[in-house]
Write a structure and sequence with these properties.
The chain is built from 12 helices and 13 strands. The chain is an alpha/beta fold and about 375 residues long. The structure holds pyridoxal-5'-phosphate (PLP).
Length: about 375
């Protein structure tokens, strides 16, 4: 007979009701992977070789620095910010936990406009906060008026804005973000995971006027380093001196630092890749707009979210049977019937469009 595990009774209620985060992947042979908003471009071999070559110099038996100061300096120089206003983390998701730990006391209110990257609701719940959810406008854009009203009514500890937003790709105009930041009494977190692809300017351009705003950025998307796990926070140095207190020391390993250093030295390559992804995203949007009875969100990220005629879950499965993996978005109530496709290489995008149009019996 199994021994009863007493520790199970001590698991916090907030954790008991969670489920582990899982990206749904159907079985079968996938040849075109467009389901996680990754970069379709891996690092060039020479760059990888340079990283591995230098890696031999790294002392495996020594801890890295408590915080990766050099990388913070380099990142700061790239974006034009003070290095003591940068915190590096193992991907931006991990930094979201850092912010939760710093800012979410039990029952603290956190304004989350919908539809928003589902991870945020999870983090609010895990830290015992209360999510104040704001319904979108009819066009699925964040509802600035609704957010302002909630800010006034509930004086939230935190307001989160993701722009460009995942799952829609839509960017909130900077003027509206400034309005929200101007009204919010606590922390305003702007998740800019996709900002490098956007036409809309970053909040970074006015960040000095808003010391209670923190930007969350990642090397996973435009920089093509999702496999390395590196992201960063940008904000007022005084605020960052508080946030850094909850960071465990030695979190950022020497290998990841070397990989990010290598990529940051190739700004031209990154810019070219971003340009290619932007133009392919436009091509995807235009092609998907030809589908009668569908609807396309003309976003500013490295993916396109669109509604197909019929059942999106069925289409997701049929595409997977053709070897093409996209994401079914019907888990978001506002996105019932929608799919999301990451922008791939031109060949991958063509393969996706060909399969989709064939399945919809549209001749191209
Ligand atoms: C809006 C948004 N923020 C953050 C992330 C996570 O990025 P990272 O790989 O840096 O953890 C994603 C990933 O898809 C995202 O869509």
């Amino acid at each position: 007979m199994a021994i009863e595990n007493q520790a199970l009774l001590q698991v916090r209620r907030e954790i008991q009701r969670q489920r582990p985060y899982k990206v749904g992947v159907p079985s079968g042979q996938i040849t075109v992977k467009l389901n996680q908003n990754e970069s379709p471009f891996d690092l060039p071999d020479e760059l990888k070789e340079a990283v591995f070559e230098n890696w031999k110099e790294i002392a495996f038996h020594r801890y890295p620095l408590e915080q990766p100061d050099k990388l913070a300096k380099l990142t700061a120089a790239q974006i034009g910010w003070d290095s003591d206003g940068i915190i590096i983390g193992n991907g931006s998701n991990e930094l979201t936990y850092t912010l939760g730990l710093t800012f979410i006391s039990p029952n603290a209110k956190v304004v989350l406009p919908r539809p928003m990257f589902s991870f945020y609701e999870r983090v609010v719940d895990i830290f015992g906060g209360t999510a104040v959810s704001i319904a979108p406008r009819e066009n699925l854009q964040f509802n600035t008026e609704g957010i302002l009203q909630a800010v006034q009514q509930s004086a939230p500890a935190v307001v989160v804005i993701t722009s460009p937003n995942n799952p829609t790709g839509l960017a909130l105009p900077l003027a509206e973000i400034k309005k929200i930041a101007g009204a919010a009494p606590g922390l305003v977190l702007i998740d800019e995971a996709y900002i490098e692809f956007a036409d809309e300017p970053s909040m970074l351009t006015v960040l000095r006027d808003y010391p209670h705003v923190i930007l969350l950025r990642t090397f996973s998307k435009a920089f093509g380093l999702a496999g390395i796990r590196m992201g960063y926070l940008v904000g007022d140095p005084a605020l960052m001196r508080e946030v850094i207190k909850v960071r465990p020391p030695f979190m950022i390993d020497r290998f990841s630092i070397a990989a990010v250093n290598a990529v940051l030295s190739k700004s031209r390559l990154i810019r070219d890749r971003v340009d290619r992804i932007r133009s392919e995203t436009k091509r995807l949007i235009q092609a998907l707009q030809q589908i009668k009875g569908g609807h396309v969100l003309a976003g500013q990220a490295n993916f396109v979210t669109f509604r197909v005629p019929g059942n999106s879950k069925e289409m997701f499965v049929k595409l997977a049977e053709c070897g093409i993996l996209v994401r079914d978005m019907s888990g978001y109530p506002e996105l019932a019937g929608f799919l999301r496709v990451s922008t791939g290489t031109p060949e991958e995008n063509s393969a996706f469009l060909r399969a989709l149009m064939q399945l919809l019996s549209i001749t191209v």
